[in-house]
Amino acid sequence: MPAAMQALARARCRPREREPANRLGARFPDRYGCPMNALPLPAPDWALFLDFDGTLVDIEDHPDDVTLPAGMAQRLRHLQVVLDDAVAIISGRALADLEALLQPLRLPLAGLHGLERRDARGCLHRDNRDREPLDAVRDAIAGFVAARPGLYAEDKGGALALHWRGAPEREQEVAAFLERQRRQLGDGFHIQSGKQVFELKPSGRDKGRAVREFMAEAPFHGRTPIFVGDDRTDEDAFAAVNALGGFSIRVGEHHPDTAAIATLPSVAATLAWLDGLPEQLEATAPDQS
Ligand SMILES: [Mg+2]
């Protein structure tokens, strides 16, 4: 059995003796140190929201190194078909970046952690007034990075990311520097932490809000929301789907502080789980004959 399938089998076979099953057969998380729950059983009324980096593709040293793996477009298209188009990507990447990566696939997308969104009709939701104040700190960030090998600044237009993956010893220095820039911009901005990255962005929009906005629209409205993501930037979305009666799944090692109710151990296990959903949905569909 391939390693990814073995990992998925382990995730599915975790102990079931402590908590009652919920309405879709999932386990509620045990917040007292016991193993996490098994994965929810899929249902045809799911609205599936997926993070991108660290969830559908492994994280690379540089975000530009990521390409769409072979078969990914087909996988997502298949999920669209079985879930009546209720599939969307919600990412920290800029919308234009996501669109280029996913071409020729057309999916509802939210970029910059919900700062910009393209709905299922193809309409763009973005407020350019959010991003203008960032001009005041762009030069300072560029100068900071230029003087410190290993750091990388990513200008996403509506947000400025500072990656410290190449210089992990500078984490605190980067955090303190970016907090000084944030203070200069005022309360309308905050710092979003991700995996070895800090991001300066306007406040008030996050992945949870993107989930709620999609859920107010066709084809998502009235469905059960599922969010799959891998890091702190996804916690708002986990909380949002939990509050809406849905399911939240965190990819990677179990994190003690997550709001997610289930875990998948890796990107490979996540892809194996997604690939199994259409077959599981067909197996649970009522007999039409
Ligand atoms: Mg991610």
Description:
The protein is of the alpha/beta class. It folds into 2 domains: 192 residues, 3-Layer(aba) Sandwich (Rossmann fold); 73 residues, Alpha-Beta Plaits (2-Layer Sandwich), CATH 3.30.70. Helices cover 32% and strands 18% of the residues. The chain contains 8 helices and 12 strands. The strands form 2 sheets. The protein has an 8-stranded mixed β-sheet with strand order 5-4-3-2-1-10-11-12, with helices on both faces. α1 crosses α8. It is globular. About 10% of the residues have low confidence. Bound molecules: magnesium ion. Magnesium ion binds next to loops.
CATH class of the largest domain: Alpha Beta
Q: Would you tell me the overall average pLDDT?
A: 86
Q: What is the number of beta strands?
A: 12
CATH architecture of the largest domain: 3-Layer(aba) Sandwich
Query: Which molecules other than protein and nucleic acid are bound?
Result: magnesium ion
Rounded radius of gyration (Å): 19 Å
N-to-C series of helices and strands: HEHEHEEEHEEHEEHEHEEH
Give the class from helix and strand content and strand pairing: alpha/beta
CATH topology term of the largest domain: Rossmann fold
CA-based shape = globular
Measured by DSSP, the beta-strand proportion falls in: 15-25%
Fraction in helix: 25-40%
| Tally of individual domains | 2
Output the number of helix runs: 8
Q: Detail the poorly predicted runs.
A: 9-36
Distance from first to last alpha carbon: 35 Å
Largest sheet: 8 strands, mixed
CATH superfamily of the largest domain: HAD superfamily/HAD-like
As laid out across the biggest beta sheet, the strand order is 5-4-3-2-1-10-11-12
